[in-house]
Amino acid sequence: MAYSLADPEKPTQFPRDEEDETCPIRQVDVTVPKTDDPNRPVVTFRMWVLGLTSCVLLSFVNQFMWYRTNPMSLSSISAQIAVVPIGRLMARTITKRIFFKGTKWQFSLNPGPFNVKEHVLITIFANSGAGTVYATHILSAVKLLYKRKLTLFPAFLVMITTQVLGFGWAGIFRKYLVEPTEMWWLSNMVQVSLFRALHDKEKRARGSLNRTHFFLLVLSVCLYLWSSTQLSFDRINKFFLALLDWSQLRSS
Questions:
Q1: Residues facing residue 98 across a β-bridge
Q2: How far is the C-alpha of 91 from the C-alpha of 44, rounded, in Å?
Q3: pLDDT on residue 52
Q4: 144 by DSSP, 3-state: which?
Q5: What separation in angstroms does the CA of 219 have from each of 67, 149, 161, 204, 214?
Q6: To which H or E segment does residue 249 belong?
Q7: Rounded CA separation 127/121 (Å)
Q8: b vs e for 196-220, b when ≥16 Cβ sit within 10 Å of the residue's Cβ?
Q9: H/E run at residue 196
Q10: Alpha-carbon distance 252 to 248, whole Å?
């Protein structure tokens, strides 16, 4: 369901040929919305700020933690959830003043409410930085195993070459892996469902849950289970460490 900028509560429908909009894949047909609002701003100031910040932050954290024995990884879904309150806060606080009004260069730092199109672009930025660079394995092996010094320019060239090679193969096989209707990816359906849960405004019937409430409920339960499990494991570890120390003191 799309919403107009003039009246965010009023859905804007853009009727199209129903036969063209029906997807043969049932999961895609019920998950991806069939309406669009072309008047929504996309390339905005907050999109650039949150997108670049998410890309740089996830790239640094994942690459830094990759060298640990038990590496921690942050996926793009983490940024997808975290940027929603920040984007809405920016939409409320940033000035709505129009700069260079009346010229072809006019723009506004706050063109309207934080919308799903901005959110999708921010998530694309975050997803680009969430994965570690594959050439890091090569550079680490050269330095740590072979004890060879590699200067900045050759190392940068190796990293850029591997990254561009990956994007090149993706472009070559786009006709076969992206454009055909049969090539749908389940992980993308999860993210689309999350976008709809965070942005679609559904009326909640008495005694039922809408997408947003269901998402918050599941998120709260998962956080509780994760935190309680972590605490339980910490206590078990401390118990066994204390038992080990006691046995060593007794043997000595």
A1: 108
A2: 11
A3: 95
A4: helix
A5: 29, 47, 39, 19, 9
A6: helix 211-251
A7: 10
A8: bbbbbeeeeeeeeeebbeebeeeee
A9: helix 186-199
A10: 6
Q: Is 94 exposed, middle or buried (0-12, 13-18, 19+ CB in 10 A)?
A: middle
CB 51 within 8 A of CB 114: no
> Structure tokens of 111?
């063109």
Q: In the block, which residue shows the tokens 């590699």? A: 150
Residue type, 21: E
Place of tokens 């006709």: 175
Q: Return the structure tokens found at 248.
A: 């060593």
In this structure, are strands 98-99 and 107-108 parallel, antiparallel, or unpaired? antiparallel
Spell out the per-residue pLDDT of the chain, length 252, in tens: 444 444 544 545 544 544 556 777 888 888 888 888 888 889 999 999 999 999 999 989 888 888 887 777 888 888 888 899 899 999 999 988 888 888 888 888 889 899 999 999 999 999 888 887 888 888 888 888 888 888 889 889 988 888 888 888 888 998 888 888 778 888 888 888 888 888 877 676 676 777 677 777 887 887 777 777 766 666 666 666 666 666 666 665
| Other residues' Cβ atoms within 10 Å of the Cβ of residue 171 | 10
Helix (H) or strand (E) holding 135: helix 135-144
Q: Provide the residue count of the chain.
A: 252
